[in-house]
Amino acid sequence: KGFEEGDKVCKLSKSIYGLKQASKAWNDRFNEFVARIGFQRCKEDSCLYVRQSKSGPVYLLLYVDDVLIICKDL
């Protein structure tokens, strides 16, 4: 497996699915997105995000690539 010609290099602009770095890249991008829409990451649990809304707190829980949202009303 790998390259037959060792003198060629490719620069990737994003992670390839299945690489070790892909999950971290996805998580970094997710963190940036939820921060932009007003969520703050919990210091005690890095998978929990909280945002205050008019009807109370909105909790967003991330587990691998599953998201659970808990709130009174969106």
Helix and strand layout, with pairings?
Elements: H1 20-36, E1 40-41, E2 48-53, E3 56-63, E4 66-70
Structural class: alpha+beta
User: What Rg is obtained from the alpha carbons, in whole angstroms?
Assistant: 18 Å
Average pLDDT rating? 86
Write out the strand line-up for the largest beta sheet, numbering strands in chain order. Answer: 1-2-3-4
Number of strands: 4
- Helix content, binned percent: 10-25%
Terminal Cα span = 50 Å
Strand content: 25-35%
Summed up, the helix count is 1
pLDDT < 50 runs, ≥5 residues: none
Largest sheet entry: 4 strands, antiparallel
Order of helices and strands: HEEEE
Shape: elongated
InterPro entries: RVT_2
Domain Reverse transcriptase Ty1/copia-type: 5-73
Keywords: Nucleotidyltransferase, RNA-directed DNA polymerase, Transferase
GO molecular function: RNA-directed DNA polymerase activity
Give a nutshell description of this structure.
The protein has 74 residues and is of the alpha+beta class. 23% of the residues lie in helices and 28% in strands.
